[in-house]
Amino acid sequence: MRLRRVLYWSVAVVTGIVVAGYAALSSLQFDDLTTLLQGEVKRATGRDLVIAGPVDLQISFSPSVDLQDIRFANASWGSRAEMATISRLEVEVELLPLLTGDIVVNRLVLVDPDILLETDAEGRGNWEFETAASGAADQGTETAGKDSGGGLPDIQAFAVQGGRLTVKGATPEEQLRVDLTEASGLVPEGGAARSLMVAGRYNDSPFRVEGTFGSLRAVLSGDASPLDLAVEAGGAKGTIKGTAGDLVGAARAKLAVTAQGDSLAALTPLAGTEIPNLGPYKLTSDVNINGNLIDFSGLTAQVGGSDLAGAGTLDLSGKRPVVTADLAAKTLDMADFAPPTESSAPNDQEKAEQSGEKGGRIFSKEPLALDGLAALDGELALSAGELRATPRVILNDVKLSAHLKEGRLQVEPMQAVLAGGTLTGRGSLDARREPAVVDLVLQGEGMDFGELLQAAEISDRVGGPLALDVALSGKGGSAHALASSLDGHVQAVSQDGTIDNALLSFFSAGLSNITGPLFGTADQANLDCIIGRFDIVAGQAKSRALVMDTGTFAIAGRGGIDLEAERVSLTFDTETSEPSLASLAVPFKVIGPMEDPSIVPDAIGAAVNVVGTVGTVAETSGNIVAGAVDTLGGLVGTGPLIGKIGGDQTLCGEALTAIGLAQSGPANSDPANSEVQPAGGAAPGQATEEPSPTGVIEDIGEGLKNLFGN
């Protein structure tokens, strides 16, 4: 909307009123005053002006006019009959400047003004007056205003008592409203800066502005004028200091801006769009405005315990705003940017509990807020020394670049240090398509597996380097829809690690009395490998390889995860290097909702003698799990889970081959080498206190729940 045109035609109306009033005053034709005023406005705008109340003229070198019950007609297509109504208007001007075409308003009083600015579906504004004279006058006054600001009045003092301004677009969503409680401005004696005070409500959110400014004419249409304002709005307190000019034209300003508050959500009515309940926050920046280009420099921001610093630009010249930013952070905590979960409406977890369904939802069915992606374009370069994805998962030396264009967000490249290793990847979100399409690729190398498991609150009893390979794509308007449509794979490989013997005691259920002879007496044993890969098609994740091998003891699993139903169905079995002990091992299952899976013995698997053995570990360097390694992603129940495979191939090697990787090196073939003697630990052959399996079982159970997000 061209605010300049609104202001100039407001000046034209006021000028017409004053000039007509003075003409009537000079000829003493008081009865014709109302007719003259209406004629001047009709000639200038092509619209009707109704003055239903009394008219009071004061004759002096500072003539004034006092009008009541004023109504100015709206455009013929408008949503109501009047563009503006005013209960009372009082204007006092200086006579001599008026005779030369300059308007100096000593006093302007508006009581309960109600002004409507609106556009139709074709983009026409109700302030565009359909007269030939208006076009020429508008062009002339706009040129004058641009050069010198002379087309606008120099208002010495003003007061607005009550009133409202409504701005409406072509749709109900494009609407804002300002309700004024009071507004006033005054030039103090001695010619100091004018004082300003405005209080009211913007879209039903209270605001207050107080401070000083140099000249209303300069601020709105002329050269730079000093500003020093304190602002309270949306629960925030801020300051604006600097210079500004021509704010209704090609705005120019150099400002220092500060803002702070308890929650960004309180700014939602001001922004016109939903803002998460984030905070407390604090912001400082130097702002340089040059027409449609706004530069931010020296930017610092704090939200909770997170910080940001850098610079950016906002370009308003195109059909969509374009934002660019180069930001750096010492610490970014995602918890500071996540809205609180409390809500009067039941969430997915509560809905599940109310329906009697065991386990809540991990993937919400609430629609994703994607509309904002089409509202602007932008580019972001971000670096962070520490990024806290969760309280326990911390990424260091984060660097990423993000690009947003016409509703498509692309993050590439992105890299970070995670658990001592490198994590790289890329991602995209295309909101132009219906439903939205998401792609994610992650590669991790050299990460500490034990640190990651501990961070996920799964276990602190496993260690070793981890290689991660994730490639996923999906489409949907909610997290649940995206998960239900996922295609791709998730793969994790850890070799040459360690595992706590207490953990092995749990997995070798039925063998805990003889785990010392089987695994050695040290606190830890060598872990040849942990390998897992799930191939995902249309939200159905099927295991291709799911094994763990210490060289003396192996665990293998197979099964699937239904991401649409959010249910797990995995079967695991164990195998040892001691044939005489094989019948004691009991298979187990992990089944049920992802949010709260259950671990149950698989008695049927044990009854049909699913477990097999492979002679001497020294000869085979581990066991082969025939059913667990399946390049086709076999499902539970398709055949024996564990069986013998001849030759010298190891379980780790078979699993690596199944996922398309060559074995990096031979697995341990000497059981004696499977011990890892910690400093101060027991010597080989020396008895140690057997850890309680109960605590380990509880750890694993909680770990599985944490693995799926609970």
From TrEMBL:
GO biological process, one term: regulation of protein targeting to membrane
Ranges of residues in domain AsmA: 6-139, 295-501
Regions crossing the membrane: 7-25
Statement: the UniProt record of this protein carries the keyword Membrane: yes
Domain of life: Bacteria
A Pfam family annotated for this UniProt entry: AsmA
Organism per entry: Pelagibius litoralis
InterPro entries: AsmA (IPR007844), AsmA-related (IPR052894)
Protein name: AsmA family protein
GO cellular component term of the entry, any: plasma membrane
Skewed-composition ranges (Basic and acidic residues): 348-361
Keyword Transmembrane helix: yes
Biased composition (Low complexity): 677-687
Keywords, in A-Z order: Membrane, Transmembrane, Transmembrane helix
Biased composition, class Polar residues, residue ranges: 665-676
Disordered, as annotated region: 131-152, 337-361, 663-699
